[in-house]
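Before relying on records like the one below, remember that each one covers exactly one chain. Contacts with other chains, cofactors or solvent are not represented anywhere in the record.
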Amino acid sequence: MIFLLFLAVGAVAGLLAGLFGIGGGMVIVPVLVLTFAAQGISEAVLTHMAVATSLATIVFTSISSVREHHKNGAVDWPLVSIMSVGIIAGTAIGVSLITSVPGPVLQKIIGVFALLVAIKMFFGLDPKSDGSRPGNGGLVTAGGVVGFGSAWFGIGGGTFTVPYLTWMQIPMRQAVATSAACGLPIALTGAVSNVFAGWNHTDLPGWTTGFLYWPAIGGIVLTSVPFAKVGAKLAHKLDQKLLKKAFALLLVVVGLRFLLS
């Protein structure tokens, strides 16, 4: 039954990754936290495992989503290459710091973040800009901030990257596609860093490498990859505003669950 749940989570996460370029982590992490708790996994490691496992699954989701967006010529690869310098450094630093944060505290932080994202998405609170593009230093710094935040919340960075790209007045579809491409270095760096961060931790269950939990990774990836393709195709057809409001309400539930638990 738990593996079937992982399959269902993967399907939803993949669909969201393709639709919004968010990597699906905002769904994966909360469900994994609840599932790991039900499995009796130690509270000391289950939240860190959820974040790390989410990042590992996003490696596969991003590849699938980016391929679909690339076919449509929507990915700004020069921009991705510059931001990736900061993304890799920021993600590695984020993982190194999050390891020392107790699991229950980390859940509260994730809960607050979910509520803030929900407010932003529901009301469309995106910063305005004259469309001027920052220099390479500014893009690398932005990448570092995106990577750092993503490492804490187990996301592909789209929550940060899409608003940043639209702030530069990059068209939404191109912003989503480019954000999905930025999610790959975030996920790779986050997954590898979490292997070392959790190496030989005494409270980890079986089937783990560091903080990565392979049964969840396998189940989620099986469905997230094909559904990411579906999401990327639907992103060019559906009403994005309506979808964002619905997803925002889901995040409110997630945020309140973590804050009130």
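Residues 46-71 form the longest helix (26 residues).
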